[in-house]
Amino acid sequence: MLTTLVMIKNFTLFLIVLFMFIPHLTEAQKRDFGDISKQMIEMDVYEKDSTASAVVIFDVGDAELDNRLEVQFRRHIRIKILTDEGFTYGDFSKRYIEKKPEQDISKIKAATYNLENGEIIKTELDKDDILIDKEGDGYTEVKFTMPALRPGSIIEYEYLFESESPLDLPDWDFQKSIPSMWSEYMIRIPEWFRYLKVSRGYEPFFSIEEKPYQSGGRQNYVGTESTWVMKDIPAIEEAPYMKSIDNYRSAIKFQLANITVPGVVYEDYLSDWPRVGGALAESSSHGKTLKRNKFLANVLEDIISEEDSELEKMKKIYSHVSSHMNWNEMLSFNASQDLEDSYKEGDGNSADINLMLVNMLKEAGLSAHSVVLSTTDHGDVIRMFPLISQFNHVIGYVEIGNDFYFLDAKNEKRPFNLLPANSINSVGFLIDIPKKQFKWINIENKDENNLSIYIDASLNEDGKLVGVLNSKSNGYYAHYTREEFEDEDDIKESIKQNTFSDPVNTVIDSANVKESELHEDLRFSAHFEVSANISGNVIYLNPMIVERLLDNPFKEEERVFPIDFDYTFDETVTLRFTIPEGWSVDEVPSSKIFRTPDESANYRKLFQVAGNTIMMQYKFSISKHNYNPEDYLFLKDFFKALIENQSEQIVLKKNEE
């Protein structure tokens, strides 16, 4: 890379001017720092979104490769603060790398404007209030908070970001968590550089312009100037069952594809997925870590034996790595250091841990590979654009006979057959180094997520439902319940708070959790007492004493984003109880069955009365992860009907003597 750039920089000395100077049409959109209008300073509500706590007046970015062919990025943003909640937008924070490649943030200028006695008063950010935090991982963070903030303030700041590498051309977010009146990004790229562009989001561009440009100064060269503008952009907000908000935020991203100087140099940079795979395979912090495994022989002697089957070896190695290594909460597909050092320290990022896992599995003779992926909160991978920056995590993949397993050893409390929910983001990219094969693979958990609860109880005249609950679960149900048990000092309190629908009116007398392996079903029982409502000679009991859904997660009238459930599930509750002597059933909710049109979401609640015994059978399941926005109203109506049905009560009356 460095040699290529040196050749290009030398070549620019001999370029002949091919174009006369062309004025920039976007110049009219530039704003002078400090040019604050009376209209904006007096605005107290943004008419296009009266709920907004702040609004971006404009956000303008300008990026180019300068005459040294290094990235120069200038940003100027102005924001109107409308309420106290908008003060958070007065905080600035940005990280950069100090070396390899060398980066820097400089020329910071910031000011707050307030209206006082009819005059606009400017308060500049003091240079001493700009904090430079040199972090231990080679990064430096620049932070500051705007001064003199109050509802009604206008703030603005600008800065220059520089990088010696053309790989660091900044991306641009047009859409934010507050509305924006104007967002504009212009880049100037010399003709020798070709960048891949990825555009995301649902908001339309107000304008897109491309035109040739010519550099000034001694080193004259030509290129393309591109400008993207969006206008009146609504805020984008998190919604229930939504993956990364960045999947839907209107933005544009870049990655260098190749450098071409006719007769001088041609070099590709990740221009297709096989090259991405090859780069990872040859990377000293990824593929080559899987070849440095001499230290593993002694480690494996204490973990596995020759008599172990391949499945037993996998389980034991997974258990050892997940318990020996402490995850430092950092996700990466690159190891932070030599794996032997990470093993000795017992600490590392997700790549340190899972590449170590793959390494041990390979050393034990198993067919194991790494799979790089993007977690759900990092965003979907756009497969038509081979951008390595779309990944942020790596897991292990093992083939045993005709079966396969995905492994993530970051958490010793999670079973080997259960990936973290945020790792199941459709696809991953498998790196098979021995065969030099790099391919996409669907990522999924093989186990189901089932919950089954059986309750046997009796209702007494005081309105106390007393009985025994037996629960059996697997998959995420079991994993999350185990985590809840770990977090609570008292298992009885955990069951009351997380299983029963009305903890305030519930008492757990005793509880027992059956010991089991992490990958096995979780079983527990509890002796409980739930208080029903009594009014005179009438008892009102909601039979959904467990797993009742109280609030519809889908409240908006419409939705433009897909709905993504972390996992499919099936839950069943059976309640059998007897009523007290001298009482009769006055009302029992009618049995209900309903589903979505595609039958992927199903609900059933059935009642049966036999003498003094009432039985309820409840079943709720969702059998697919993803729903299109067009399905939103079906899901909203489904959950509305479910909540209404779960609120119905059984009514008992005392017999007249």
Give structural notes:
- The protein is an alpha+beta fold and 657 residues long.
- The protein folds into three domains: 2-22 and 48-267, Sandwich (Immunoglobulin-like), CATH 2.60.40.3140; 273-442, C8orf32 fold (Roll), CATH 3.10.620.30; 450-654, Jelly Rolls (Sandwich), CATH 2.60.120.
- Helix content is 16%, strand content 39%.
- It contains ten helices and 36 strands.
- The strands form eight sheets. An eight-stranded mixed β-sheet has the order 5-4-8-2-1-10-13-12. It has an eight-stranded mixed β-sheet with strand order 25-26-24-23-30-34-33-32. It has a five-stranded antiparallel β-sheet with strand order 20-19-18-21-22.
- Strand 19 (393-400) and strand 20 (403-407) form a beta hairpin.
- Mean pLDDT is 91; it is low at 6-29.
Question: How are the SSEs ordered, and which strands pair?
Answer:
Blueprint: H1 2-12, H2 38-42, E1 54-65, E2 71-81, E3 91-97, E4 103-116, E5 119-124, E6 131-134, E7 139-145, E8 154-163, E9 172-173, E10 180-190, E11 193-200, E12 207-214, E13 222-233, E14 251-261, E15 265-268, H3 273-282, H4 296-301, H5 310-324, E16 326-327, H6 339-345, E17 347-348, H7 350-363, E18 367-373, E19 393-400, E20 403-407, E21 427-432, E22 437-442, E23 450-459, E24 464-473, H8 475-487, H9 491-498, E25 506-513, E26 522-531, E27 533-535, E28 538-541, E29 563-564, E30 569-578, E31 583-587, E32 592-595, E33 601-610, E34 613-622, E35 626-627, H10 632-646, E36 650-654
Parallel strand pairs: 1-10, 16-17, 23-30
Antiparallel strand pairs: 1-2, 2-8, 3-7, 4-5, 4-8, 6-7, 9-14, 10-13, 11-14, 12-13, 14-15, 18-19, 18-21, 19-20, 21-22, 23-24, 24-26, 25-26, 27-28, 28-36, 29-35, 30-34, 31-36, 32-33, 33-34
